[in-house]
Amino acid sequence: MSIGRIGVIGAGAWGTALANAAALAGRDVLLWGRDADEMAAMAATRENTKRLPGVRLHERVKPVSSLSEAADSRALLLAVPAQTLRSVCEALALTMKDGLPAIITAKGIERETGLFLSDVVRDTLPGAMPAVLSGPSFADDVARGLPTAVVLAAPDDHVAQILGHALSSSRFRVYHGSDVRGVEIGGAAKNVLAIAAGIVEGRGLGESAKAALTARGFAELQRFATAYGGKPETLMGLSGLGDLILTCGSLKSRNFAFGHDLGRGLSPGEAGQGKLAEGVFTAHVLVTMARARGVGMPVAEAVDAVLRGAISVDKAVDALMTRPLKAE
User: Is 190 tagged catalytic?
Assistant: First the structure.
């Protein structure tokens, strides 16, 4: 499998960053966005001024507004939000060639169906080869060429290795593996836990509380992943522990920033300054799926209750701190 050209579907901050990373790795890149005027402006200015200002597009990146043009590639990076992945894939199905690797880069679970994103791709693009890219990575860091390491998983480890090599450079290191389920669970669940960590910091509860919550949240993530077929060792790597460490400690994380606003007293409708926080959409479906398999996730349940307005932040914290004592 020779991968000379990659199509990036989605011209948000993350899609733009991945386009630059793929170009830095020596690939020709077609970056697709649905707004023709925005893509024309991006082509003219060589910058995504709306979503990633100050970062120049690599010379190998070509912004396009034609989905069929972007799909005429050797592999696709699906850089659209988790809850819009289905509709974008349905449109891609009309123009995409069979056998094309479709690499999911969103971190979430489909809220309406409870499907993992790799299953959404299998449903909508039956001729594609689904893969998942995840790990501790901020769009701005990746776009600027700062050192970053992520993991790419595909059912066929050889395919994962080829795709990883195609995207890797001296600044963007891509490990590979075959545990698709573990990698996508790590990415999706950590967003919910990052909201919880943000609440703790925004409420001024201290670093000790944040560390305890992060550790207990990681235990929840591991239990959930095991129940749904993920490998424990995967969650100890970049897509589990690594991503959790990054997003539970920085306001650059949209999920952490959203939680931080909640902790400061803002309502769920006010928090996040209008920016997409995938954990908001994932929380309830994650808790529902955990209950279906008998997995205890008290931290995630507290986040879900706060987001639904069923409980206040202070009562959620009290409930977590007064749970029955037990062995760790």
Answer: yes
